[in-house]
Please model this.
Amino acid sequence: MPAESRIRAFFGLPLPEAHREALDRYVAACAALAPEFRWTPADNLHLTVRFLGHVEQGLAEGIMDRLAGLGLRAFDLRLGEAGAFKRGRLTRVVWLGLASGLAEVGALASAVEAESVRAGLEAEARSYHAHLTLARARARDGAVLPELPPPPDLPTWRADELILYRSHLGRGGSVYEALRRLSLG
Model:
């Protein structure tokens, strides 16, 4: 396959702009306390539903086309507490979990997973864990995470759009481009 027809892609749920602004301030405060982590820019904040990896763009768009025919429904989400994926005592990823909407986002992730597998992608080895990634350790093995302030208490929002994103990797970090949007009924 020609390299130019392959993209790094994922499906995600966007955040409302007001949530991005509040989280931008929160992430800045956390970054000052934990510089050994790469903190996510506000423009990149989203809930990943399924990472596709490097795939043919047509394959990713075909998955989106099939999802559009499923009659997927909108649902409410609310961010919860901060958490971390660790290796031993070292933190690799800092995230925010969900206080509500777990079952609904899990059902959406299952539908996206089923269509991804149907399209020929390998099934995810790990079970889906809904979260909003805030930071990744700069060191491959992780870093010690200091105590962070509590995250802002943000209101519930309606998740009414699924986006197929293209991820452009660069020296300044990833830049996400929305390729296709699917309105959730």
